[in-house]
Design brief:
Two copies of one chain form a homodimer. By secondary structure, chain A is α+β, with helices and mostly antiparallel strands. The first copy, chain A, is built from six helices and six strands, in the order αβααββαβαβαβ. Chains A and B meet through α2, α3, β3, α4 and β4 of A and α2, α3, β3, α4 and β4 of B. β6 of chain A pairs antiparallel with β6 of chain B. Chains A, B: It is an enzyme of class 2 (transferase). Chains A, B: This is Glucosamine 6-phosphate N-acetyltransferase.
Chain lengths: 185, 185
């Protein structure tokens, strides 16, 4: 095992490491590391972790890397983070906040937290809490006046512990040809 | 009154008029028009309509136009629409859908509907429904596998009539220095 492999300085990151809260980093178990998503994270199991959350429908590494670059090319929009197990160089936690510009609130911005997932082998280590804290830090430090996310009834108490309060209801409409299913390719 | 003033072809639009559903356009009362937001819509009362919804905190036209251009410069992201009263050349309805890229669902996309507002003088004309239909059309035609929005308990029946179903709960955290208030400038 190599410590160089996991060194953020050697990676092509989605955004600067400096945006990750040092306080949150320090609270992680010492065998884990939190950093921005890197262009080579497909190989470290990024989609494997996301698959605990929803349908992944893996299109392969080239398509994944293209999406990474499309997201990074969007100015001040996507901030995906990962928690990495240093020994195995595998991703064990993921999450994203993306920033929406508005005309309201003095041309304000809102951070939307999406797609939080933690590998089942890592439960009980508060990694979900650390991901939410890190993403909220990015959102607030990017000038967002609020940060929002959607969750099930069962997860409300967890997000309340993270400092969130229930506000409204999420309504959804699935596109007709793809109802509750992965896109046909 | 001039019909030229309201002709989308003469305006600098956020996105092409062709993305607006012809079916939805045809369902509007004949004195109204639906089109993409234009760079000159600050003068047509865009923020006045938004002010029925939330704190606007108007920073002036130059700042508004800069935000318009920043949003348009973001590829395949922001789609703001307006309903215009042709006679007065004033905006009477607004709404936005922005598109989020994901790693899930075959590198899928989700449309987020935000900031729907209709002038109080125009109630009872189903303009809210038309705005939702037009934004959902844009979202689904942009390849989003689902479209989501957040609403109060009182508005759930309205969005159900628009084809939406309640899914999860919106949780929110306001940034500490700006809690439930407009940003200090």
């Amino acid at each position: 095992m190599s410590t160089t492999r996991a060194d953020p300085a050697s990676l092509d990151l989605m955004f600067p490491q400096e945006l990750i809260s040092l306080e949150v980093s320090a609270l992680l178990p010492s065998d884990l590391q939190i950093r921005p998503l890197a262009s080579t994270d497909y190989k470290r199991g990024h989609l494997d972790v996301l698959s605990v959350l929803s349908i992944v429908n893996d299109l392969g590494e080239v398509a994944w890397v293209n999406q990474f670059h499309a997201m990074r090319a969007t100015p001040r929009a996507y901030f995906s983070i990962v928690i990495l197990d240093k020994a195995s160089d595998k991703i064990v936690g993921v999450g994203t906040v993306f920033i929406e510009r508005k005309f309201l609130r003095g041309l304000g911005s809102v951070g939307h937290i999406e797609d939080i997932a933690v590998d089942k082998s890592q439960q009980g280590k508060k990694l979900g809490l650390r991901i939410i804290q890190a993403l909220t830090h990015i959102s607030e430090n990017s000038g967002c006046y609020k940060t929002i996310l959607n969750c099930s009834d069962a997860n409300i108490p967890f997000y309340e512990k993270c400092g969130y309060v229930k506000k409204e209801n999420e309504m959804a409409k699935y596109a007709p040809e793809r109802v509750h299913n992965a896109p046909k390719l």
